[in-house]
Amino acid sequence: MKRETTLAVALMVLLACPRAGAAQQWPRFRGLQAGSVADDPTLPDTWSETENVAWKIDVPGLSWSSPIVWDDHIFVTTAVSAADDEVQPIRGLYDPGEHNGSVPANGEHRWLVYDIDFETGAVRWVRELHRGVPTITRHLKNSFASETPVTDGERLYVYFGSIGLLAALDFDGEELWRLDTGTFNTMQGMATASSPALHGDRLYVLNDNTTQSFLTAIDTATGGQVWRVERDEPGHTWATPFVWENSLRTEIVTSATGRVRSYDLQGEQLWELSGMSPLTTPSPFTSHGLVYISSGYPGGSLRPVYAIQPGAAGDISVYTDVASGLQEGFPGSRHYSQDDHVVWAYPLLGTYSTTALVHGDIYYTLLDRGFLTAHDAATGAEVYGRQRLEIGNGFTASPWGYNEKIFLLSEDGDTFVVRAGADFEILHKNSLNEMSLATPAVVRGSVILRTQSKLYRIARQ
Q1: Would 151 be classed as within a structural domain?
Q2: What are the residues facing 237 on neighbouring strands?
Q3: Residue 177, in any domain of the structure
């Protein structure tokens, strides 16, 4: 059987049985089920720098992209500076100083891709895709390699928005094509972080910037541009576009500071929704037949969450500001009739950096300052309100769940393990004692977790 036929069959199985597939492959940011993992008794609940560590390796440079996994290949990216005085990330939630935390590069950078053996942690190959001094600034908690790559099992697709480079590699590390998408400044000079989305034979790349924001579709085989739509956006989105295969159609949902917009596969806009906070980071995802959208910049008057059902058209906006929600009499959840496409919404539930998790029937919100809330995923009804994890811990990585437990990775490298369900209870705290902002991959009995300098494969030993 030809490799192409084998890949096609494998992808059909993944789509038909996503929860089974999610246990075998982790091809994109947050996996195939947005962090919700099928139960697996071999997955670990506890770990440390030495306990339940199958291996750990050093990864140079500064990068907050997440690892992805296909078969025995773990792919990670990084940007390595030649300068000794590059500004290092600092824990916390803030926009410090005159430039809101924006810092320039001090030296030449090398943009690298690693292929690491799943079983042993050995580095198969390293490919340098670009070398030069970055021409834009970054937020000191961002990096010049924050976009997570994506794979279809045949090619690896890597996007470095900070240098406008999109490239495809084969699994031997050979470059197949590259495309210059343009290098653009973002609002407040915070650099880029929106990862590419893959669907069929198309890659979708979102870049909202201060010059001309755009969404583009790229042919995966050739790197040729299929279409590009310009977007009226003010210049900053870190959210990854989401291809939503729902009961009525397939659409590309993009979350942004100005408006949420959904497009068909030809780039025509289907619907839009205003009422987001500035500096949108959480990525759209689906569960229970709904698509969930949120944003929560701390200085925003709105920090909303929306749950939307298929079939929307035109402007489906709910809020103009917090007052519009309160005046309607729903300081908490807003419930709609079945004819409305926004099924439920909250004006002040969204997060700044983390994307929420639906595990089982519960929508979990990990607030950046270390609180967890739980709501019914279908109706928005509160299951429990804010529960403190630990004073002093901040959170950037998105949560994940398996085996009736929710996992919450802090910027200090502490993973809080919380009982899933209606009763909040902290079961464990697993410490790696190094800063971590990247969301892990969970696959084949292992957690692939990235800290600032290391990559761990955590598995029961």
Answers
A1: yes
A2: 280
A3: yes
Tokens of 407: 């996992």
pLDDT digits (tens, 9 = 90+) for 154-171: 999 999 999 999 999 999
Which residue, 415, 442, 418, 451, is CA-closest to 47? 415
In sequence order, which residues have a C-beta less than 8 Å from that of residue 316 and are 6 or more positions away?
271, 272, 273, 308, 341, 342
For residue 10, give the 3-state DSSP assignment: helix
Structure tokens belonging to residue 46: 């506890």
How many whole angstroms separate alpha carbon 52 and alpha carbon 77?
25
Q: Give DSSP secondary structure letters for 213-240.
A: EEEEEEETTT--EEEEEEE---S-B-PP
The model's pLDDT over 53-110, given as tens digits with 9 standing for 90+, comes to: 999 999 999 999 999 999 999 999 999 999 988 888 888 766 655 556 888 998 999 9
Please indicate, yes or no, if residue 201 is contained in any of the structural domains: yes
Domain limits at 114?
A: 68-238
Give the Cβ contact number of residue 156 at 10 Å.
25
Are residues 295 and 281 in contact, defined by beta-carbon separation less than 8 angstroms? yes
Task: Give the CA radius of gyration of the chain.
Answer: 21
User: What is the count of structural domains for the chain?
Assistant: 1
The CB-based long-range contact list for 170-173 (8 Å cut-off, 24+ gap) reads 171/70, 171/73, 171/115, 172/125, 173/113, 173/115, 173/124, 173/125, 173/126, 173/127
What is the arithmetic mean of pLDDT over 356-375? 97
Determine the Cα–Cα distance for residues 207 and 238; give it in Å rounded to an integer. Answer: 9
> Which of 113, 156, 145, 202 minimizes the C-alpha distance to 27?
156
Write the CB contacts of 230 (distance below 8 Å, at least 6 apart in sequence): 212, 213, 214
CB atoms within 10 A of CB 412: 18
184 in a domain, yes or no? Answer: yes
- The per-residue pLDDT for 9 is 39
Give the whole-angstrom CA distance, residue 395 versus residue 410.
5
Which amino acid is residue 117, in one-letter code? D
- CATH number for position 120: 2.40.128.630
Q: Are strands 414-419 and 342-346 parallel, antiparallel or unpaired?
A: unpaired
Classified as helix, coil or strand, 74 is: strand
Long-range contacts for 383-391 (Cβ within 8 Å, ≥24 apart)? 383/422, 384/422, 384/423, 384/424, 387/424, 389/416, 389/418, 389/426, 390/414, 390/416, 390/429
Joined together, the tokens standing for residue 252 give 């590309």
Q: Tell me how far apart the alpha carbons of residues 29 and 400 are, in angstroms, rounded to a whole number.
A: 12
The answer to whether the beta carbons of residues 395 and 27 sit under 8 Å apart is no
